[in-house]
Amino acid sequence: MTEKEYFDSQLSSKENGENFDLKALFAKYLKSWKFFLISLVIFLGLAILALQFINTSYNVSSKLLLKNETSNIDASGNNLGNNNPFSNSERVNNAIEVLTSVNLMRSVLDTLSLQSRFTVPDAFPPKEIYGSELPFKMVVDTLFPLAYETTLTIKLEGKESFSISEEFEDSLEENNTASSDYGYNTYNYGYKIEKPYGVFTLVPNENNTSKASQFIVDFRDIDEMAQDYVKKALSVYVINKDASVINIVLKEKISEKGEDIINTLVEIYGLKSYLATNALALNNVQFIDDRLNTLSRELSEVELNVAQFKTDNELASVEFDANSFAEQEIDYGRKLADSEIELKVLSAIERNLKSGDSESTINSLSVTSPNLIYLIDSYNKLLIDKKSLQRTVPENNPRMIDIKDQLEQLRRNVLGSLSTSKQSLRTIISSIKGRSDQFAEKKQRIPTMQRQLLEISREQGIKENLFLYLLQKREEAALMVGVRNDNFTIIDSAITDFESGSPSKKLFLLVAFLMGLALPIGVIHLRDMLNTKVKDKNDIEKKTGVPVIGEIAHNTSDKNLIEKGEEVSALAQSFRMMRMNLDFMLSKKKVQTVLVTSAIKGEGKTFFSSNMGVALASSSAKVLILELDKHNPELIEALGETRKEYGISNYLNQSHNTITVNDLLIPVSNNPNLFAIGLGSENIDGLESFNSNRMNILMNQLRNEFDYIIIDSAPIGKLADTLALSKYTDCCLYMVRSNHSNLEDLNVIEEVRVHKKFKNPLVVMNDVSTTK
């Protein structure tokens, strides 16, 4: 792997780590497993304890199907709103409003005598009991305001009797003078108990499962209870907008109690609907009877008016007379037309005969007179014979002359008969016209009489139809009286859904479990958010792209320098691994001069430099460590050696070159390949001196004599001296100490990388704990 490939892989791993490191996250949580365990135990324990005091509420539901019929003003069972497209939704909405009314719920609670609440004394936690859990049932007749300040204790005395003790509030007890109300009083089942706080009766419950013999009774305001049930517990809604099915849901802690409430709610709803319908039907019967009496009198008067009108106008039936007059008028018109046509035909025949036309036959189709028809037929026959004879004989033939004489005689006879028939027709026409005028006059009077009679008959018909309609409705309304016909069908009676328990125990424990996990996670992340120190390698990788060359284990001994015989220690192994990593990461480039720096004081520069020198010298390499931290020169003491008279400051500030490198070298005991050079005894301007020609000569000479040169420099975050040494170094090691270095100080090494102020910058994680 080349240097560039290594640095690119480090940057890539950093970018991936910034997204999400699941393994590191679990490792962080695993370190605090005791904290997680304690939190889970506390939260689950609190949840189990809380469940003992929290009563679970269940959903008790019932389904109703509303019928198509709806009660109306006639109470006949007919749906007068069937033509209304909104009648179904209106009926459903009306039913929902009634079922969710406080008044209806109050009737339910009163019917079930739920004003009283029963508990068992000394029970932990306190729990209400109801129904089969009680050996008796309390039927409350009346409660007075004092009841809400009264607590009863009922003790069973046997199968037939019980005793009651009352306890009042102090403020009310002073005003109560009935001393007999205190202490235990014995009563038999079924006896009506009358007290200043109310009137009630206890009846035995044969199907009870209770083993207790003493019970506490508290009274509650039924109006407040009804409002609470309607507002907080009861829900009535439509399951499907296209259907008339209503779902009734009640949240109740005691399933038996919830089922009783819903079943009673439906029963009372149906009963009240029946009573309202029955009362309406009775009112309708009375109303219809009154109207029938009035219509009977009015109908008799109208019938008398019709009879009187027909008598005055001599009418049997206007319609029949009008039809008869019309038929007769048509008949006379037809006869008049036939007679006029026949008269015209006779006139035409007469004209032809008088004109001397003796060669044409006479048409007798429209002639009605039998005598005239006979004469015409005889005339036509003789004329035909004449025309036949003319073909064979001359005009002067005796036979021809005889036929002509006969034709002339028949012509005169026909003319005479025509005159008589025409006169007869004129008389008939005159008679027909007279009769037709008479019928026309009567016909003209028919519409007026018909209109007058129609007005009277219309009033008669309306009253007759109304009378019959009311008779029918009266019978229907009478049948409705006393007959209960609910406008709904119960699809499902009240049933408890035990899976709908609220709060759900499983969910409650799950939430407690999640909270038990969330608290440690939150604390850990909050601690990380508030933390300003570098804790581990991940913090470095998140803040900078400079690779981490390795981690130095925490030094558990009181020694600051690795000695012979300690090569197997964790500290020695850390430096050995550091040396190998340095060779591996920068294998393509000769690394001879290594600069060791940090952001602030106390991050282990001198400790690392001295021990890194020992680690490099142990591989037979000749190593030199330079002490160039002018503000905190501790290298020579860390190596356990004595300072010489001269150091780097003396070398750089000399004027006659009398001090040589050999005068500066300090051999490290027990390490023949390790040497050190101290800072010196003179003041030194690091920026000026490190950039001098003498410093350049010194570094070149040291490079020729030593395999590795380690520079223990000042912190880079505050001094510019260290920057002046960059041109002499092949690698810059930036020290970061766990739980000591600030996260913000990592910006310094990131700036070094971005602006390339040093060659091959690397980070060393110091003082890392070996315990996980």
Automatic annotation (TrEMBL):
<dbReference type="GO" id="GO:0004713">
    <property type="term" value="F:protein tyrosine kinase activity"/>
</dbReference>
<feature type="coiled-coil region">
    <location>
        <begin position="285"/>
        <end position="312"/>
    </location>
</feature>
<dbReference type="Pfam" id="PF02706">
    <property type="entry name" value="Wzz"/>
</dbReference>
<dbReference type="InterPro" id="IPR003856">
    <property type="entry name" value="LPS_length_determ_N"/>
</dbReference>
<feature type="domain" description="Polysaccharide chain length determinant N-terminal">
    <location>
        <begin position="18"/>
        <end position="111"/>
    </location>
</feature>
<dbReference type="InterPro" id="IPR027417">
    <property type="entry name" value="P-loop_NTPase"/>
</dbReference>
<dbReference type="Pfam" id="PF13614">
    <property type="entry name" value="AAA_31"/>
</dbReference>
<protein>
    <recommendedName>
        <fullName>non-specific protein-tyrosine kinase</fullName>
        <ecNumber>2.7.10.2</ecNumber>
    </recommendedName>
</protein>
<comment type="similarity">
    <text>Belongs to the etk/wzc family.</text>
</comment>
<dbReference type="InterPro" id="IPR032807">
    <property type="entry name" value="GNVR"/>
</dbReference>
<keyword id="KW-0418">Kinase</keyword>
<feature type="transmembrane region" description="Helical">
    <location>
        <begin position="35"/>
        <end position="54"/>
    </location>
</feature>
<keyword id="KW-0067">ATP-binding</keyword>
<dbReference type="InterPro" id="IPR005702">
    <property type="entry name" value="Wzc-like_C"/>
</dbReference>
<feature type="transmembrane region" description="Helical">
    <location>
        <begin position="507"/>
        <end position="526"/>
    </location>
</feature>
<keyword id="KW-0175">Coiled coil</keyword>
<feature type="domain" description="AAA">
    <location>
        <begin position="602"/>
        <end position="740"/>
    </location>
</feature>
<keyword id="KW-0829">Tyrosine-protein kinase</keyword>
<dbReference type="Pfam" id="PF13807">
    <property type="entry name" value="GNVR"/>
</dbReference>
<keyword id="KW-0997">Cell inner membrane</keyword>
<keyword id="KW-0812">Transmembrane</keyword>
<keyword id="KW-0808">Transferase</keyword>
<keyword id="KW-1003">Cell membrane</keyword>
<feature type="domain" description="Tyrosine-protein kinase G-rich">
    <location>
        <begin position="449"/>
        <end position="529"/>
    </location>
</feature>
<keyword id="KW-0547">Nucleotide-binding</keyword>
<keyword id="KW-1133">Transmembrane helix</keyword>
<keyword id="KW-0472">Membrane</keyword>
<dbReference type="GO" id="GO:0005886">
    <property type="term" value="C:plasma membrane"/>
</dbReference>
<dbReference type="InterPro" id="IPR025669">
    <property type="entry name" value="AAA_dom"/>
</dbReference>
<dbReference type="InterPro" id="IPR050445">
    <property type="entry name" value="Bact_polysacc_biosynth/exp"/>
</dbReference>
<comment type="similarity">
    <text>Belongs to the CpsD/CapB family.</text>
</comment>
